[in-house]
Design a protein that fits this description.
Layout (H helix, E strand, L loop, with lengths): L1 E5 L5 E5 L4 H11 L4 H15 L4 E6 L8 E4 L7 H10 L1 H8 L5 E3 L6 H5 L2 H7 L6 E9 L2 E10 L8 H39 L5 E4 L5 E4 L1 H12 L1 H6 L10 H13 L16 E4 L6 E8 L10 E8 L11 H8 L4 H11 L4 H8 L3 H15 L4 H8 L1
Antiparallel strand pairs: 1-2, 3-4, 3-7, 5-6, 6-7, 8-9, 8-12, 10-11, 11-12
């Protein structure tokens, strides 16, 4: 009996259920897949529940320049050369190149049985494994081949019938929807991780607090910035580099007080959501201040707002006292807090040995940070750095 199941995009997929609840459950597991290994396991369960097959394979190539990703129920190809030869000899590859967009096809529709048995492809790749018949579901995106799922049968299992091909055509939209969702999730994950890697290395100390006031994300320079707030800049500079962030309690209290008065219906009128946000500072730490913004994204209406905190170090040691103040401050903002401490001491005439002793660093660490400072400021050496700071 034919039934229909709905997908997330409003499409309806017909389902033939020769195996009853087993196929239904397998299709539900398929739609629950979030990773490619889960998709592969669910695809196998669906196809084994739907049809008798010898074994199943999957070959994905979502990007033309990337190597194929292969899943097989039997042993993988012995080498990359063997797989390349398989692709060159396969009648399926040539057929799909000539007829892009084909969703479901069987080998017997492409090549006559006698011609197949006389081919090198059959002798080399099918006969040793006991394969005689083959059908595949093909996946495309904007006219480009994305991959296929292949089903192999032995001679005793006979060729795929017309009813079998109809069932595969009905199952194809399920596979296609889940596969493209997983590929899109992987692309989004790659973008997010790339942006996180970029932000982690930025010199601007940045922290993201969730609505429960837990640190959801921070970059490396934020660790030292929070230490400067907690201990004072001088003491924090003398201590060794930390690996964990300790968010300042006064900033946590400020955000907690704001939460108590926040009105979600008027969040666009809130001072924290208006540019540039709200500055917060402590009398005990002159020159240190934090810019707080409330992020309420229209694209994520079901999520609670988050606090974006950016730390600034405006101590007068980083101002030259002349018309180049803004320019010099802008250049120094490229440095991490640790690099600023090194730059300031070098600008005061300290040698590398003295800087290392004062900041409890090794000589090699000071030299490495100086090289990084020169590169970020695009200057030749310590003479130019001293001139900038003075």
């Amino acid at each position: 009996m034919r039934r229909r199941s709905a997908s997330a995009k409003g499409r309806c997929f017909p389902l033939l259920c020769p195996s009853g609840d087993e196929l239904d459950q397998a299709v539900l597991q398929l739609h629950a897949a979030q990773e490619m290994k889960d998709f592969w396991a669910a695809a196998r369960a669906v196809l084994h529940a739907a049809l008798p097959v010898h074994f199943i394979c999957m070959c994905l190539r979502p990007f033309a320049l990337m190597p194929s990703t292969i899943f097989r129920e039997r042993a993988p190809f012995a080498s990359e050369d063997e797989f390349r030869r398989f692709q060159e000899l396969s009648p399926i590859g040539a057929f799909l190149s000539a007829r892009p967009g084909t969703l479901v096809v069987r080998l017997s529709d492409i090549i006559a049985d006698l011609e197949l048995q006389q081919s090198e492809f059959y002798r080399r790749f099918m006969l040793p494994c006991g394969d005689r018949y083959f059908a595949c579901l093909n996946f495309w995106h904007s006219g480009h081949f994305q991959g296929l799922i292949g089903l192999h049968r032995t001679a005793t299992q006979r060729d795929f019938t017309h009813a079998d091909m109809v069932l595969l055509a009905q199952l194809h939209p399920h596979f296609d929807t889940v596969l493209h969702r997983i590929l899109n999730l992987n692309r989004e994950r790659a973008v997010r991780l790339s942006l996180e890697k970029l932000l982690v290395d930025l010199p601007m100390p940045t922290v993201l607090l969730d609505w429960d006031l837990r640190v959801a994300w921070h970059n490396r320079s934020a660790i030292d910035a929070c230490a400067a707030w907690n201990l004072g800049p001088e003491r924090a500079a003398r201590e060794k580099r930390r690996s964990e962030i300790h968010f300042p309690a006064p900033l946590t209290a400020y955000c907690a007080n704001f939460k108590a008065t926040w009105n979600p219906c008027h969040h666009r009128l809130c001072s924290l959501t208006s540019p540039p946000g709200v500055y917060f500072s402590l009398e005990s730490q002159p020159g240190l201040r934090a810019l707080i913004n409330l992020l309420q994204l229209d694209a994520a209406p079901l999520s609670m707002p988050m606090f974006l905190i950016r730390f600034e170090d405006n101590r007068p040691v980083f101002c030259s006292g002349n018309g180049e103040n803004a320019h010099t401050a802008g250049l120094l903002s490229r440095l991490s807090p640790r690099e600023r401490d090194v730059a300031w001491l070098v600008g005061q005439g300290f040698s590398n040995d003295e800087v290392a002793l004062h900041l409890s660093k090794s000589i090699l660490t000071v030299k490495r940070q100086l090289r990084s400072i020169y590169q970020k400021l695009n200057i030749a050496g310590r003479g130019r750095l001293t001139a900038m700071l003075r």
